[in-house]
Amino acid sequence: MRNLFLLLLLLISSQESFSQNEIIAEEDIPVLDIIIDSLETEYQNSPRSNIESLPQGTGDYFEVKTNKPEEFILALTNKVELDSLLKNFPNLQIDRDLLVLKNRVEYSNGEQKLQIKSFQIKNNSEHRITIDYTDSLSRENIKFYYTSYTNKKLNSTNIRGFKIKEHFSKVILPEKYADWVSYTDFLVLPNQNLFFNTDSNHNSLYNRQENIIDSLVNYYAVKTNKPKRSKDQEFISFQKSLNDWEKKRSFFADSLFNEDSKFKELLNLSLEYAENEEKSNGELEFFTAELISKEKALKLMRFNQHVGSCSFDNGPIIQQKRMASLAAQIPNWGVFIKSFLNVMNDQVSRVANSNIASNARKTYIEELSKLNLNIPKLLLGSNLRIDNENQQHYFSDGSKIGKAFSALDEKNQAFFEQTISELIQDEHVDAFNKLHFYNTLKHYQYFIKDTIKKNEIEQRITKLEEYMPPVLQSRFKNPNKELKDLLREEINELEKFEILDTSIGNIYSYSYGGDCWMAEIRDKEKNSKIIYDLTMPIEDSITPLENFLLRKESLTNRIKEHDFINKLFSTNSENQLYLKFTGDRSFSNFRNRVLKEMPKKLQKLNYNNAISFYISYPNRKYVRYILLENSNVIMLSIPKDFKIPGYDFEELLTETEENFFSKSYKSFKIFDENGEMLN
Question: For residue 425, what is the enclosing H or E element?
Fold first, then answer.
């Protein structure tokens, strides 16, 4: 899997390197600066209006799966206390005392939704529901917001929602921060839409018929000998040859336009077709910009929003880089600044997105810094979260703002750090913006390369937690509050352990699939290296910690008293042993996912009372094992070149599985208590 990610990240970087390297040409800067000067003069001479925070309050999140949904919803309607429902609905999850945000969202098709959400802090989950918006939902006396989904096959209804304790309210932000918003709104024109007919563009991925533009593209490819990838050619090698061909595009296009009448005819027919049908593609836009009109080319781009097929698809980013570059040349400030910020924020349209892909992309903030802009004010103004009923303010992504500031000079970085510290300590700033800028600072720290500075910022971040309002501070001080609330009847037993990590959610693994609570805990005794890795189902009821406690001593003793396991464990002082426990047992073969990979002879062994565990080794390597009741140990997958006392990698290896991206190594060797290999 790691090799897969590396290859996909290499794909992103190669796509970016093979696209245009620069967005803003030096010769375009003077004209853009004149526009900026005019807009800033307008901003300075304009009156300031009040800027309000998003509506926020406090409340409890609840979630239940039941075949009695009417009874539960009736209780909500009657404003029954959630705790009183635990007896009749023993799988009811309650996450208490949350900061809750209410936000009305309007989509491009005019549809309006209401989002109610809370936020992840440490190991405490975020929660979110989205419901159809109606004016009645704006009333202040609503105590419950919820949504439900019924699985008819299972005859089960999932109900999720929030009980509001402190009703939603807004605060007027201090003038200092409101000024950031005003600056951003003057520079990033609120009514500037980049694309026309955005609703239809998503269908273009699947419903497309060939037209005259395809004939133009195919003719150009043939006449210029566009490279084709052979079966044996490596991807990067092919991309290099394609890049070499791309570098000559301007020369090829100009030559064909002047000397090839068929190409010229196809180009004119394609442009006429594109303008009439409001359809286009990247090649036609390039030819039009180079040979006919930059203004017409930009208009074509705005009819042709690229939609990425996956999170690693760089096509939409490349398109908006070209839009920004072309708009800078014309110049069209409104399109330029919005498309540039979209590139910086990776704020484009894709079928799917992932943080891994997004974090690998550049912000290009160094280029924007060439212009005579107040960069800190623009970035901070787009990062501030405000009530935006008219849906016109431009919002940046907090992680990208952090990454952008990490690429600026020391003066801007120092200003950024100090400004966020002041904002979090300002009693007039709302709780959500404090949390949002806290997270932005964490992203900034992540992208800082200097180790010493990274550690200094981490200490600063920790200190800022003390200034958070009580509704947030309770979770900073108690990173496992959500789980402790869930297991409140067993809190005394839980706190006898050192809690390393917790989460509550829906998983699918080799040991379990479904809703569950998870925890990594260990005894508080000094130098304890056995970590208990618990996965506890939330089905008809919440599996109690007691299930594990009843079996803990016997499971631990079997591990500690096993000579071979102690040898495996003691090969390095950094090794740690994770003892798995799922529901009411250690070894769990969910949907036969463990045994089906084994040789048939091993599948027939007795796995009753088996112990599932793994040992983590330095350099992020780990090996899974199964301890059978007869004291034999089965070694499962192993990392490359792994060895143990008495046996090298080749002796431990049974089979190698290879796919396009990676290799995995299976051992399936059985050892007795003395470490003798039995197969």
Answer: helix 410-425
Cα–Cα dist 221/209, whole Å: 19
pLDDT (tens digit per residue) in 1-17: 444 444 444 444 444 44
Give the residues across from 94 on adjacent strands.
62
pLDDT tens-place string over residues 161-177:
999 999 999 999 999 99
Check residue 525 and give its pLDDT: 82
**Sheet architecture: strand order including 530-537:** 497-508, 513-523, 530-537, 576-582, 611-617, 621-627, 633-638, 663-671, 655-658
Q: What is the mean pLDDT of residues 628-639?
A: 96
CA separation, residue 508 to residues 65, 496, 534, 590, 607 (Å): 18, 29, 14, 9, 21
521 membership: H or E segment, kind and range = strand 513-523
* 308 phi, psi to nearest 5 deg: -70, 140
pTM recorded for the entire structure:
0.90
Output the CA torsion sign for 329, 332, 335, 340.
positive
| 192 contacts 334 by C-beta, under 8 angstroms | yes
**Residue 59, beta-bridge partner list:** 98, 164
| SS (HEC) of 259-280 | HCHHHHHHHHHHHHHHHHHCCC
Calpha distance 270→296 (Å, rounded):
13
For residue 357, count other CB atoms closer than 10 A to its CB: 22
CA separation for the pair 182, 185 (Å, rounded)? 5
Structure tokens at 492: 């005394």
pLDDT tens string 78-88: 989 999 999 99
Contact 273, 316 (CB under 8 A): no
As a whole number of angstroms, the distance between CA 112 and CA 104 comes to 7
Q: Tell me how far apart the terminal alpha carbons of the chain are, to the nearest angstrom.
A: 29
Nearest to 381 by CA among 359, 401, 410: 401
d(C-alpha 238, C-alpha 247), whole Å? 14
- The values of phi and psi at residue 112, to 5°, are -115, 135
For β-strands 576-582 and 611-617, DSSP reports them as: antiparallel
162 vs 93, 141, 158, 264, 484, CA distance in Å?
A: 11, 14, 14, 63, 19
Task: State the amino acid at position 17 in one-letter form.
Answer: S
Q: Strand ranges (DSSP E) for 107-224?
A: 112-118, 127-132, 144-151, 156-169
Residues in contact with 452: Cβ distance below 8 Å, sequence separation at least 6, in sequence order:
none
